[in-house]
Amino acid sequence: MLSSELLTTVEKASKVIGKTWPLYSFVTSNPLTGYESSHFKDAVASARHYLNAKVFPEAIVFKTALENGEIDTNILNNLLKENGWNESPEFYLDQMNQNGVEELSHERVLDRIMSKWLAAFLDEGQAEWFMPGKKAGFYKAWRKLAKYDKSVKINKTEDLPETSEEALAQVLSDYPQEQWTEICTQHIAALPGWTGYINYRTEVASGWQLQYPIDLVQYLAVRLSIGKNLNINLLDKANTEDKPSQDSLKYVWLKAWERSWQHVMISAVATPEIVKESNETPDAQLVFCIDTRSELIRRHVEAQGNYETFGYAGFFGIAMDYIDLKDKITRKSCPPIVGSAYKVTESVMPGKDVEIAAFKKKTKLTKFKDRLLKRMKNVLPSTFGFVEGAGFFYAFSLLGRTLKSDSLYRRKNKKDRSFENITTPQINCAGEENSINGIPLVEKVAIVKGAFDLTGWKTFAPIVVFAGHGSHTANNPFGSSLDCGACAASPGRHNARMLAQLANLKEVRDILAKQHNLSIPQETVFIGAEHNTTTDEIVLFDAAVPKGYNDQLEKLKQALKRAQQTAASNRLGVEDAVTLAEKKASNWSETRPEWGLAKNAGFIVAPRSSTKNKNLQSRCFLHSYDWKQDVTGAALEGIMQGPMVVTQWINNHYYFSSVDNNTFGGGTKITQNVTGRFGVLQGNGGDLKMGLPLQSISKTDTELYHQPLRLSVLINAPLDRVTDILSRNENLKSLLDNEWIYLMVMDANDNDRIKTYQSGMKWSLSSQNQDNPVYSTAV
């Protein structure tokens, strides 16, 4: 049993890391989440100290932003002077140099040894031969095998304590108790990618973790035992030299860049185009995820005709796990901060038994083929002969996938769509996936009602589309990072189809009308869909839609096809953009199939009229919200507690991956190697990569594409409503006070004047015309 002193020590030390999510569910999250209760400046100072990391943009990044007009010179000069910097911006650019990094003396030896053992233990099926004894846990498995590893110089198993708790206590007993936290922090921080993945496994506590347990106590017990045995000083005082003046200067530049962006964003929303009120019912309404990539496609869909679009978190309010019929793997399909209340499976549509049998047969054959090829490539007796014999055929395959990538994509995509035409989603309470009756009717009603409450819905079109989104790319270990963040890096089509099915239920509509004054016309049909963010194609899953809607559906499909063409052309800057996008989606050698959420910087919670016809350049998350419809404020509180927090995670993930891609990011794709099916290494060893690859945030190896700015949130609502919500949610107030996120309110009770949150529940007023924003607080 771990003593309370040791337990407290490990808990405190673990704050230095976040969570490293596996490749198959690569959720973008703040790598410094353990420090979110501290001020941003203090958190990044600790990260630089312990992780030897860069934590602010480099001088060349600031210089480029200034030259491009992204940093307003007036705002920059004012902030510099407010904070005691009286020279010119050019002078301070010359002063900015990245802090030097001193390696900790113990890192190289212990890191190399630990990376080897962690890769072997944490493997999730990539290796043909498993590390023996894994079921006993990491420490005990290592303890039995340590004598065979000459690099650790342990001769007998009996020389090591039997449990990880005893081993850790034994090592730390050589040091004063006041040094324990510092020792553990340094050694957890030495491999933040690996320890972040241990953190993830421990918290998720399912699947591989239940069979083969590991935690930070076991990690520290192994690492510190090896270090002690090799006579390595476990407490290293040679950390990165602190340069507070450099940090302070860079922080001022960062704030100036962020305020300049806020000026642009506010100007667009505070001067909305006049949108004529119309009593005409839209031909169709489409609900997209709040994802920044939806901002582009929504503009182009609306331009095709009488279509109305909404923004809603892409899990569509269903806190669910999805069990894939293809591989039987259960994947989370709702925000990581939300517990999964439901399990969604697939059932066969009436009359589709023959098709589903063929589908299962094909899936089984594909699995067998993949398993056979894997064994042929990896099992020692056949490895060399297989490579020699199969090389000729692989060469032709690669050539075909390179030269005909667009046509191959279209054929594959057509086959993939057939799955949704023969199955229908089935929802059950968690742990009851074999239930016949599904979930209680009252919960079905709550899910559907919640969707319309949060988006401020008023009228219903004959066709309403819920469009989840997913990214289609080839040879991309980080592919799931391009899927839906609100769905825990899963595609959102399963949630979209599920919500459409629930909204089509007559019994759900009856209760909505009788008990909640929400009348859905009988002629309104709901359809699930998927927005492919790589190609901008929107696929409707309309197999179950009555035939009477054929003409309307065909008209909508043609409009969506035109929207794809114009959106892709706008995004890629070429005439035949769809073909280029399809090539990018299926080209095995494409390092940048799409940009994902790069350049994200804003989150706008407001009616569509505030942003319609405005080109926000795919930089803003857009959540539909009408404060007049939200009488109690519950809908806004839900948006702030959920989507606002998730978008902050995404934003921080992009920020840190940009300022130090080696430490917080994924490094270059060119030299990445997948390990254990769950992560990537740079080259053949070292730390597990925890963030986005260089190609996802940079135009070139030296020029950034993403602009590393913290998230700026703008809410259109009465200020007192927002203040009331913050007063009840200390975690949200803390994120604001500690400057992990900015909040501005377009005060509906004060002529929509913009008011910016300041620490301690204070607000500053910026001038209405936005020519001269009023900021008075020094940073």
UniProtKB/TrEMBL annotation:
Forms a complex with DabB. Keywords: Cell membrane, Membrane, Metal-binding, Transport, Zinc. It comes from the Bacteria. Coiled coil: none annotated. Its main location: membrane. It is found in: Cell membrane. Pfam families: DabA (PF10070). Belongs to the inorganic carbon transporter (TC 9.A.2) DabA family. It comes from Nonlabens dokdonensis. This is Probable inorganic carbon transporter subunit DabA. InterPro entries: DabA. The gene is dabA. The keyword Glycoprotein does not apply. One of its GO terms (cellular component) is plasma membrane. GO terms for molecular function: zinc ion binding. Its cofactor is Zn(2+). Part of an energy-coupled inorganic carbon pump. Zn(2+) binds at residues 289, 291, 469, 484.
